[in-house]
Automatic annotation (TrEMBL):
Keywords (A to Z) from UniProt: Pyridoxal phosphate
HAMAP family noted in UniProt: PLP_homeostasis
Family to which the UniProt record says this protein belongs: Belongs to the pyridoxal phosphate-binding protein YggS/PROSC family.
SUPFAM superfamilies in the record: PLP-binding barrel (SSF51419)
Annotated positions of the N6-(pyridoxal phosphate)lysine modification: 36
Listed InterPro entries: Ala_racemase_N, PLP-binding_barrel, PyrdxlP_homeostasis
UniProt name for this protein: Pyridoxal phosphate homeostasis protein
Domain Alanine racemase N-terminal span(s) in chain numbering: 42-220
Length: 223
């Protein structure tokens, strides 16, 4: 087995273990392999190992990779901060946008022609630079997504803060998700959990994991 195959199967086992510990069906958990800064050759190898969902966080890189790998029929997830002026272009290749975090971005994603799946990203820190809507502004933003044609709200996305344990942070997202479901009963998905905290995320109900380096190995330095 290649190193990539070995790491992928180790993570798959870790996910299955955590699902068992949580009393959950692993089939309800989608693993998005985050391939930012990685070459397309690595994404091809991932596809040959059965990976169907890949995530990228920079528009230009994502667009180029999605074009070059169109033959693989992968599902592309956009997980990074998104500038409103790039929003329409991201819609063209991404099936899921995980980082909807402000009204102006929702407006830029509006479409009468097609629908894209999205998550509203919540900021679990006090630092606005980390992306995500502040908890106080959650409901109005969710309502705006629901009122905007061309967006289907799947649920909430979050990144665990660096300076506190992940599990209670994910529990807060789970509680926010209950608030969201009063407005949008179907929006029950939770995009949370990365290489170092996916177990905690699964224990708190994550349905979409975004895992990079635990599967891909270290990222090459951005050029
Ligand atoms: C890079 C990234 C990930 C994956 O991070 P790892 O620590 O490599 O697993 C997940 N989510 C987002 C938003 C990212 O930018």
């Amino acid at each position: 087995m290649s190193e990539l195959a070995t790491r992928l199967s180790a993570v798959r086992e870790g996910i299955a273990d955590a699902a068992t510990a949580a009393g959950r069906d692993v089939a309800g958990i989608t693993t998005v392999v985050v391939t930012k800064f990685q070459p397309v050759s690595l994404i091809r190898e991932l596809a040959s190992l059965g990976v169907r969902d890949v995530g990228e966080n920079r528009h230009q890189e994502a667009q180029a990779k999605a074009r070059e790998l169109a033959d693989l029929g992968l599902t592309w997830h956009f997980v990074g901060q998104l500038q409103s002026k790039k929003a329409r272009q991201v819609r063209e290749y991404a099936s899921v946008i995980h980082s909807v975090d402000r009204t102006s971005l929702v407006d830029a994603l509006r479409s009468e022609e097609s629908t894209v799946d999205c998550f509203v990203q919540v900021n679990l820190t006090d630092d606005p630079g980390r992306g995500g809507v502040a908890e106080e502004a959650l409901e109005p933003l969710v309502q705006h997504v629901l009122d905007t044609p061309g967006l289907r709200l799947l649920g909430l996305m979050a990144v665990a803060p660096l300076d506190e344990p992940a599990r209670p942070a994910f529990a807060r997202v789970r509680a926010m998700s209950e608030r969201v479901r009063r407005l949008a009963p179907g929006a029950s998905a939770l995009s949370m959990g990365m290489s170092h905290d996916y177990r905690d995320a699964i224990l708190e109900g994550a349905t979409h994991l975004r895992i990079g380096t635990a599967i891909t190995g270290n990222r090459p330095t951005p050029g």
